[in-house]
């Protein structure tokens, strides 16, 4: 057996993860990822793994592998300054990935804010900070995440990196193992949902840890069919001593609602931080600077009759459909990657409104109909309604149950094209902490007391060159 104190040629992160898994479980079995096979072959060429004689996908650790891990542990300094950050839970980037990230930061700066907790600990962005400090930078986008428990902070850090980074199966297994050891009483499906992985993967890791005695088996209960199944864990810290089923459901709902609120608050804060990095110049269409959009395009309308011609009451020039579609398409968008858009459309232009939503990068999710009470004109029907289409893109947070507005709102129409302020009030109520942009609107045209004068709204219209959206 090699001397444990003898220096080794240290394998890369992927190979090391495979070696650790093989030593821990007594064997390593490849799955579907090519990176696993490549890492195992490299570890084999270095003498750390032996291949099974019958199965080419099974590898066994050598004495050299065990000596390597022993040596690595003995060479790791125990001083406080050398300990990993409390939420640096994943293996470091490979030299190639680190170099690529460094080159990107040099070229474009830090695009994703570094996340901190209230105490100043980094939750996400250790490599970004390390690169910035090595380049002599003293400032970078920051976002402070508040109100999370220690367990929630670690789970959040794991989930972000698992979804962002290209990890091998062995590396993912290590992360899942740490989560299971930390919260063994939470079901595999719940952990899988939290970390963004398949629940079967979590179950397989759990079975291995249970067989090794590293975590306890979930308590089992007998189902209606007589089969024993793992019991679904119930959080009981806030439950009364003799809670009945009805009370249990109430408490469980309160827990779910709190988790939704925390998740929504976290997403809102991150989106706001990204929006602040957007481009806002007076007289120009903003770029990636707003998470909430409200637009009433000047649609070209069909003639009410062939004799009288088009509606001559427009107070602004109409825009062709292709110009409306091009206005906020692609990199011209004033909205962040995660955003919501409210788009006004007349009944005869519904198809065009859906096309604009899609061209601007949004998926249609729902609509609110405005009942104008008084009947208007129309070629096929006498118009009485307009519709506010709702589009969503990216990971924009959903609404808290019970806060949704109704799908129909009735108020008599007044001046041409003027929409009831009620709709803007609903948007402000739902997203009070988010930056909002209204297209085809000027602040000066709003009535005194309009909610959009509160400073949370910006505007862009035909007079944009005079200083709107600033």
TrEMBL record:
Superkingdom of the organism of origin: Bacteria
Gene3D superfamilies for the chain: Conserved hypothetical protein from pyrococcus furiosus pfu- 392566-001, ParB domain
Keyword check for Hydrolase: no
Molecular-function annotations in GO: methyltransferase activity
Keyword match Nucleotide-binding: no
Keyword field: Methyltransferase, S-adenosyl-L-methionine, Transferase
SMART domains named among the record's database cross-references: ParB (SM00470)
Residue stretches making up the ParB-like N-terminal domain: 72-162
Record-level GO BP terms: methylation
Family: Belongs to the MT-A70-like family.
Name this protein carries in UniProt: MT-A70 family methyltransferase
Species this protein is from: Rhizobium oryzicola
């Amino acid at each position: 057996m090699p001397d444990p104190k003898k220096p080794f040629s240290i394998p890369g992160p992927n190979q090391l993860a495979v070696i650790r898994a093989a030593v821990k479980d007594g064997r390593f079995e490849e799955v579907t990822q090519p990176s696993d096979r490549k890492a195992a072959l490299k570890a084999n060429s270095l003498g750390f793994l032996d291949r099974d004689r019958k199965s080419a996908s099974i590898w066994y650790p050598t004495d050299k592998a065990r000596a390597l891990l022993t040596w690595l542990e003995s060479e790791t300094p125990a001083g406080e300054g050398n300990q990993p950050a409390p939420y640096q839970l994943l293996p470091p980037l490979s030299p190639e990935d680190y170099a690529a990230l460094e080159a990107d930061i040099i070229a474009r700066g830090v695009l994703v804010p570094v996340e901190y907790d209230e105490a100043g600990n980094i939750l996400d962005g250790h490599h970004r900070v390390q690169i910035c400090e090595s380049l002599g930078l003293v400032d970078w986008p920051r976002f402070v995440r508040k109100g999370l428990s220690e367990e929630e902070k670690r789970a959040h850090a794991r989930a972000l990196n698992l979804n962002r980074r290209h990890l091998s199966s062995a590396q993912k297994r290590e992360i899942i193992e740490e989560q299971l050891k930390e919260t063994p009483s939470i079901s595999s499906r719940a952990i899988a949902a939290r970390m963004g992985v398949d629940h079967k993967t979590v179950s397989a890791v759990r079975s291995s840890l249970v067989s090794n005695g590293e975590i306890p088996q979930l308590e089992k209960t007998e189902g209606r069919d007589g089969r024993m199944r793992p019991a679904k864990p119930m959080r009981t810290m806030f439950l009364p001593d003799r809670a009945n089923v009805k009370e249990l459901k109430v408490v469980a709902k309160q827990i779910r609602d709190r988790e939704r609120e925390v998740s929504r608050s976290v997403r809102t804060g991150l989106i706001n931080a990204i929006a602040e990095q957007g481009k806002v110049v007076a007289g120009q269409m903003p770029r990636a600077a707003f998470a909430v959009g409200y637009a009433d395009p000047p649609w070209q309308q069909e003639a009410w009759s062939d004799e009288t011609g088009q509606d001559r009451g427009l107070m602004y020039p109409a825009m062709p459909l292709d110009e409306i579609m091009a206005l906020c398409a692609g990199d011209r968008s004033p909205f962040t990657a995660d955003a919501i858009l409210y788009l006004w459309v007349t009944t005869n232009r519904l198809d065009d409104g859906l096309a604009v939503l899609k061209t601007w990068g949004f998926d249609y999710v729902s609509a609110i109909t405005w009942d104008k009470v008084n009947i208007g004109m129309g070629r096929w029907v006498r118009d009485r309604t307009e519709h506010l289409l709702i589009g969503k893109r990216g990971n924009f947070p959903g609404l808290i149950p019970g806060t949704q507005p109704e799908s129909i709102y009735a108020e008599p129409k007044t001046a041409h094209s003027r929409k009831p302020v009620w709709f803007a009030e609903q948007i402000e109520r739902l997203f009070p902490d988010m930056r909002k942009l209204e297209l085809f609107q000027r602040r000066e045209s709003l009535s005194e007391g309009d909610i959009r004068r509160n400073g949370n709204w910006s505007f862009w219209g035909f007079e944009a060159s005079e200083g709107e959206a600033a």
